[in-house]
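Worked example 2:
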Amino acid sequence: MQGHVQPQNAITTFLYTPLSIGARIRTTTSDRTPPAPDLPNEIKGEIMPGTRVAERRGRTRDRVLAISAASVVLVAGITVPSLAAWTDTEWITGGVGNDAGVGASTFEVQQFAAGDTVWDDYETQPEANVIDFSAQAVQLTPGDTVYGYVRLRTVAGSLGGDLTLGADTSVVADSLEDALTYGARVMNDTTGCTAGSYASTGTELQALGSALDASAGGTFSLAAAADESTPGVEQVVCFALTFPASFAGDDTLQGATASTVWHFDAVSVTA
């Protein structure tokens, strides 16, 4: 049995050799543990236990966090602008010169026919003004021509405009409207709207002998008003209404009546 008993000195050496203890510690630590410094074997076992390693790692982590926090504060202080500022507001409004407010222009045409007492507007067909063709107009005989006029102007403060004559008579075959013809001229006053002066006065707007539903689209101009209290200069449109002599033998038209209708399309123009 004595041959199998190990010497007591060998057992003591196994239990207390610092190198053996240090070897066990290194085999149980993480691969991330930095290698132990080259120190004497007598003190390696005292400075490398797991608790000392954890403490050292903790201190290192705290230093890294502190440096990172300081860097964030530094960067924030450099890149974030101050929110302090002055403010101001300025307002404007439209106007003329130093007077506030803008407005729209006006455009209005009025008319005056023989027998009227005031200038007025007649802007729909049912309320159309009446051109006075004289008493002869209700007793027309083939070969007769009668004349009548309407005076036109812009109202005070109005823009000027261009006016176009349009024919709106409803013409039915073999009716008096179908037989009658007309013509129109633009004049400066009413004195030329007579049988003796018609052909030589003013400017032709529609040729004599035109059917009552025909319009050549002739245009003339009305001047703008001089100011806010003065109307524009008037123009006269003289109409010549003819019952052609060619119908002298048509007894069916005796005693017939006709409704003749025209209108003016007016469009403003700027100065």
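The chain is about 25% helix and 25% strand. Helices lie at 8-16, 18-28, 41-47, 50-79, 176-179.
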